[in-house]
Protein 1
Amino acid sequence: MPRLRSIKKLPKLDMNPMVDMAFLLVTFFMMTTTFKADMPAEIVIPFSKAELKIPDKDLCMITIDKDGRVFIGLDNKFDRKQMLAYVAQQNGLQLSVDDAERFSLLSSFGVPFEELSAFVTLEKTARKLYPQSGIPTDVENDQLRHWLIGSRLANPSLRFAINGDQETPVYAVKRVFDILQDLNITRFNLITDTEKDAS
Amino acid sequence: MLPELDDIQVEKVNQRESENKANKRAVNVDMNPMVDLAFLLLTFFMLATTFSKPQAMELLIPAKPKEELAEKEMAVKESKTVSLVLLASEVKWYRGITDPQAQSLPYGELEPLLAGLNENTEGLVVLIKPLESSSYGNLVDVLDALNYSDVQRYAISELSTFDLEMQLKKEVDE
């Protein structure tokens, strides 16, 4: 009987250290993780030798996709809300409190004022499928300017980064540069990927 | 106090042990579901996290000139300017404005050229001239080369008639 018991006990592994380790790692990842913000458009960022890290917070990301559509995204929910409040007030947009709350959850968007309330009230899945036409930047209807002023007012220490696709026409980017320059935002970042040595 | 408590517990355990063996086995908690869960979460967080943050390139553009100064354009010596016309796979570059001799260069070789020019010319001004068809990737290549060759002054500027003629010629050639 004693012999039998010892054989039966043999395959038992002490799982505790493994569990400890697993939970340690889980905790670590939970603390350090920042979720990938879902991008409204597929962006292939250009390569450069720059080695600056983009700031973690106080970042306003201006995305320009290869069709020249412009999207804007702030990293902070409260800043987004304030930006919306300013823009809505300046342009007489009617948005309910619920809509403003929903807007503040969008990591990035690119619709003109006219479509904004319809876009915001959509369900999450429907919103993903919505064909966003980009924020207008033309001289007569420069809506990007309003959003940028609103974002700057919401958070004065905001930094601006331009996230362009390799294929984006230079003139779309130049237009955004001009708007930034016009607003006296003369220092901003261009998001790039580290150059591959092989290429 | 404490030793007494211990005594009670030990007593209880002894009691149970003496009762039957099945009771003793019930103390063993099955950890497997917990481990499964822990690893599931671990995998999720590992996949959802972004470690490699994209790099950024800093760009400083001049502030908008004040209105009273807008009229006064800054004069730059022609001999100190270098124009870069961004074609799809190469750069056309030339010095000066009157009777320029344009040369082609692939994007990869821009940096040594600019570094050389910058060393020989004091106060070099580089004019970047993107075409209608140029892409942002080309612009970033040029800006990168400028940053690394220490050129202090550069601007994105409009195409001159010479550039337009050259572009047309290029299109005819192709």
Protein 2
Amino acid sequence: MLSFIARRLVNMLFLLIVVSFVGFWIIQLPPGSILDVQIQRLRMQGGSLPESMIQAMRERYGVDDPFYIQYWKWIQRSLQGDFGTSFETDQKVAERIYNRLGISFGLSLTALLFTWLVAIPIGVYSATHRYTWPDYLITFIQFLGLSIPGFLLALVLLIMASRLWDQPIGGLFSPQYADAPWSLAKVLDFIRHVWIAIVVLAIGATAGLTRIMRANLLDVLNMQYIQTARAKGLKESTVIWKHAVRNAIHPLVMALGTTLPALVVGETLIAIILSLPTIGPLYLDALRSQDMYLAGTILVMLSALLLIGNLLADLLLAWVDPRVRLE
Amino acid sequence: MATAAGELPKAARGKKQEDVGQIPQWKLMVRRFSQSKLSVGALIVLGFMYTMMIFSDFIAPYPHDALDSNNAFAPPTQIVWGPEGPGIYGLKQELDIERFQWIYTPDPSTIYPIRFFVQGHEYYFLGLFPSRLHLFGVEAPPEANAKIFLWGADKEGRDLFSRVLKGSQISLTLGFFGVFLFVVIGSIVGTASGYFGGALDNLIQRLIELIRSFPDLPLYMALAAAVPLTVPVTVRYFMITIVIAVVGWTGLAREVRGKVLAFRSADYTAAAIAAGASHWHIITYHLLPNAMSHIVVVGMLAIPGAIGLETALSFLGLGILPPAVSWGVLLRDAQTVQAVVTYPWLLIPVILLIVTVMAFNLLGDGVRDAVDPYA
């Protein structure tokens, strides 16, 4: 087991290095640089730009260096925890990301929890009551959930919420709570603002996972050990939850690794519509304004998250299923 | 998504068809496909949408980019029955000073008739020959503000119906080509990887592993952002197609490789090798046809995702950019909740998108069951 983890860790580290290189390369692909964007902005504000000022900016941003030198400088500093300075706002990249990371993670983890809590029971119910009308209804809703892109669902839900229930629209807090210290009222206000985001985030993943859960459980229920379990007189609930579900849950655990980064970024569109201050919109802005270090750091960070997530999923799988450990 | 509704036709499988051994395989496929009513329905819906797309310039009553400040955010036009058949009222435009919104009131004094097969703005039918013929239009003097907006107008007073039709030319095709491209790449690379093995296989697998180490959407976004902003629309269209393909092929290549590995160790392949068949012959005659059904199914089920992806990228301002029109571009107007609550018809592209994606999903399911008609 230890050697398995060690091997995976080494492999992951190597991949991470390559990923950071390729990621950085993709981010600097667009022609032009932040320099052009900045110069244009300054020109629009009026006045002519002296050549010396452009030259100073050139040196500051290091845009004249070839790509691999830029990468080398960036990765060296990154290893010391300094991800560079955001061109756009002159803030530290790390600072800009950390400001938003908390809310991003909070939302994603809640959505993940929600997904699992809903998907597993519904999937199990759907499989154990196959070809009954609730099963058909669940199937239909799943299809709808899979077909509607999340951000569109967010729009529709928002309209309904604002029209029917006088729901606050967008943001994290109502204005009167924005700077107030935490209190019960503020927490309630917060929940009123974010529940749509969580539901929308969770719904696509829930539809998919319910489907997988159902299909797997159906396969497992045909196994002979289920028949044996029933034959020896176990309660049906024990048969289902202890013998069948535990064996059917593999793909869900394996999907865990990909779910987390998907959720962290999946909210990009939703966050834009709901105007939530999360990582997604920040990444989009960085890409559009060619804020190279910021965009690069986020991309590589998310990839690291994906790799770590996959590793955790593998370990979790080994824990859930003893057979994996033996291999 | 691949497992969705896989159970559906099993009930139909119970009926034994006696003539199964006697009729050609494609007929069996058609028979199995037509057993799934949902899939047939989806095919009809898609057929209708693509027909609309082909004739979009003929059906659209106005140019998709015709600005009209007299009709900014005009609501969908009410159609009334007049002395000469269906017609519409003219609109009076007023500014609501308090809410700073245009208010439109119909003027019931005159009914302007809707005519069919009328002459309108010029367009090139299928891009080939010029025409002025349009399916319908309103006969009204230029000074009367009477235009027919079936689905309302956007903030510049452009007819949303015409714009949606125009947008379908990109939205319905881009995802399709993207998937086609990645199916071709994925099949070739996957087959090569599985068939030749060794160092090549190793290299390809590492490459796939690398690409899959990036989370999907951020990678798509970064690649789309790398497309220069200044290129013409057609170039941008193909670049975005390539972006979709560059990431998408990896999954298929892995699956094809797995299939090819299995077929390669089959007896008939050993026999072909013993008989002195060339690599090319073995691949195209023994391996690919066996993997083909799987490839087709994976491709079919990937189309809705690709269409959604194009919409998402355009919505974010990274995919297709205005003045070009796709459904994602149209939805940019619906980005703020305020706009959507006040002008709900801006959401019509959403409905079309959902219908399209759902129809492709159902069609893919039907095809998956049909390619293996003996099951």
